[in-house]
Design brief:
Methylamine Dehydrogenase, Chain H; 4-stranded antiparallel sheet; 3 domains; 56 strands; elongated; mainly beta
């Protein structure tokens, strides 16, 4: 059996307050590339729900840039490594790897021949280097700065030139090749965050923390002027400029500011042409604009929150805002309803809660941030609550519910501490939660401690059968026991005990028809047990599935109750079958998510959805 990746809903770019982010495009201008965790994301500018990823780095990535030829991408990480890899085809073969500086890579530039690479950033005495992309041989030196270099840019026609900018408040102009310091430019009065050559190479511009934009001659490096120096005070940025980008015709420069605006400057007429307020009237740090990109296909800016904003010179607000997770997804849930009508909720450890609409083809895969979510508090566990609600357990012990339209968020009760596992009955009236120190049930806002009468072993996982209301509990003694809840929320043994695990169960899931119970453990082993054969039929033998090599995080059943999917810390997703005649190996989706798969769903007969520590959501056809 095989699989195909239908869609990849990419994580948002990683941001850090006070630092600019590099958004760069391929030569065609239809794709852009950015860093997110240990992954480099290549994303379509015309359809932001379509993306690919590069996962070759072992450290957190910082930025990436296409070569002018379009054949290669150079990407950097926090340890000063630069990897140059094939951007054509799916194999993404590594061409070369170097460590030109000892710390974080802030920017990379290519010359027009796709041969020479300049990498700059932080380091111990050396803040940048120029080298050949294949051999690593030195073709110049980066000098003249006394602090971290934030950006670099190279002229794309002869005579070759380059410029860098730094936290020391200066820009440095270079002649090449080989590249050598020509002059130091000291017009700025604070950190200089960005420097960029125009596509025409006639000018380059710099922008910094002083909120000023300077224009220089592309050949000589001489100052031409401060852009719109005489502009009215209300036209200027009220704070730092973190990034700039030129229009394809080299007439305009757009700047991204810490005041939450993007401003379009007409360089030819030396005036402010237009201002886009990303968040009208809001000055919260999350709305600071820290990156910007202008291609023939689109103009996009990046908010500190990770939101990608599509801009237009004809609109005062973003045309569209695309959100996503910047941090690992820690919990997810999918509401019920008819097949294809589900709503997917994902939560990351920074507290961001996103709702993914699955009701329409034109909106499927577009995330919307749920307003009212507890910002900054990790969601430990999530579970569907009936057909149209989701229950969320926060690390601070709060239990909340949110409606499937994302419009209402309400606190249901306090759990006392964070939850490791969460389950809700079919009607959504009873929540079972496994906290750090106890097992509790919540009904009508009232919390009741549950004490299994037949064991003293601590519980490790919970699940409700949506048909019978039976509650399955995994325990540290490696057993799975089944119970019913009486009117007083007391546990009554239902008679079935499942053994065979070598480690404690960490995930449980009943099939939609209630016949099968899948239990996965901390060792990566799964047992599917026929717990309700029905009509007096004999129970089928247990199915034992053991290909995972690490803890099982989640299990999900297909609508037909025959196939099941598993998610694990090992990063794999497997699709299994309980059919008696099945002799084929399970569907193996290797390396589905960097850092582990935290959630998996089976919304349709041939569709599996996974979410992981890379902050992304993927849709697979199996």
């Amino acid at each position: 059996m095989s699989y195909t990746k239908e869609s990849f809903y990419a994580p948002a770019p990683m941001t850090e307050r006070g630092h600019s982010v590099r958004l760069t495009a391929d030569p065609s201008g239809t794709q852009f590339v950015y860093a997110s965790g240990k992954t480099i994301i290549i994303r379509s500018l015309t359809d932001l729900t379509q993306a690919t990823e590069y996962t070759g780095h072992t450290q957190a990535t910082t930025m990436a840039r296409f070569s002018p030829s379009g054949y290669y991408v150079a990407s950097g990480d926090v340890q000063g490594n630069v990897r140059i890899w094939d951007a054509v085809g799916e194999e993404q073969r590594l061409k070369s790897e170097f460590r030109p500086i000892s710390e974080r890579v802030n920017d990379i530039a290519w010359d027009s021949e796709s041969q020479r690479v300049m990498a700059v950033g932080a380091g111990n005495g050396r803040f940048g280097h120029v080298f050949l992309f294949d051999s690593g041989n030195t073709v110049g030196s980066v000098e003249g700065h006394a602090a971290t270099i934030n950006a670099c840019t190279m002229r794309q026609q002869r005579p070759f030139r380059a410029a860098t900018c730094s936290d020391d408040g200066t820009c440095v102009f270079y002649h090449g090749a080989p590249y050598r310091l020509n002059k130091v430019l000291s017009e700025h009065t604070g950190f200089v965050h960005d420097v960029r050559y125009a596509p025409s190479d006639e000018y380059f511009a710099s922008a910094g923390a002083d909120g000023r934009l300077f224009l220089y001659d592309g050949k000589t490096g001489e100052l031409v002027r401060q852009v719109a120096k005489g502009a009215a005070e209300q036209d200027a940025h009220k704070g730092s400029i973190f990034a700039l980008a030129w229009s394809p015709d080299s007439r305009y420069v757009v700047t991204a500011g810490g005041d939450g605006t993007c401003r379009f400057w007409d360089v030819a007429e030396d005036r402010l042409a237009h201002t886009v307020h990303v968040a009208q009237g809001a000055r919260a740090p999350e709305h600071q604009q820290v990156g910007v990109l202008w291609t023939p296909a689109a103009i996009v800016s990046l908010s500190l929150s990770g939101d990608i904003n599509e801009l237009s010179m004809q609109d005062d607000a973003p045309v569209r805002v695309v959100t996503g997770h910047q941090r690992p997804i820690t919990a997810a849930a999918m509401t019920g309803g008819q097949q294809g009508q589900q709503q997917l909720y994902t939560a990351s450890y920074d507290g961001k809660l996103c709702r993914w609409d699955w009701t329409q083809d034109d909106t499927r895969g577009v995330a919307r941030r749920v307003e009212g979510a507890k910002s900054g508090v990790q969601v430990d566990a999530a579970a569907a609550a009936g057909q149209d609600h989701v229950a969320l357990a926060y690390m601070d012990g709060t239990l909340c519910t949110v409606a499937s339209d994302g419009a209402a968020m309400a606190q249901a009760a306090g759990l006392g501490s964070g939850a490791r596992s969460l389950a809700v009955n079919a009607s959504g009236t009873c929540v079972a939660a496994l906290t750090d120190d106890t097992l509790v049930a919540v009904r009508q806002g009232q919390r009741t401690r549950l004490s299994p009468p037949d064991t003293t072993s601590p519980a490790s996982a919970v699940a409700f059968d949506q048909h019978s209301g039976v509650l399955a509990l995994g325990f540290m003694d490696m057993m799975v026991r089944m119970y019913t809840l009486d009117a007083e929320l007391a546990l009554v043994p239902a008679g079935r005990i499942i053994s065979g695990h070598q480690r404690e169960p960490t995930a449980l899931a009943f099939s939609p028809d209630g016949r099968w119970l899948a239990s996965g453990d901390a060792q990566g082993k799964i047992i599917a047990t026929d717990v309700a054969p029905g009509d007096g039929a004999a129970a089928m033998p247990p199915r034992r599935w053991g290909r995972h090599t690490a803890r099982i995080y989640a299990l999900a059943w297909a609508p037909d109750s025959v196939r099941a999917a598993s998610a694990s810390l090992d990063g794999h997703v497997y699709v299994w079958s309980t059919a008696a005649a099945t002799t084929a190996r399970p569907v193996d989706i290797p390396a589905a998510h960097v850092g582990g798969v935290r959630a998996v769903f089976f919304p349709r007969a041939s569709t599996v959805v996974s979410a992981g520590a890379d902050g992304g959501v993927k849709v697979w056809t199996v």
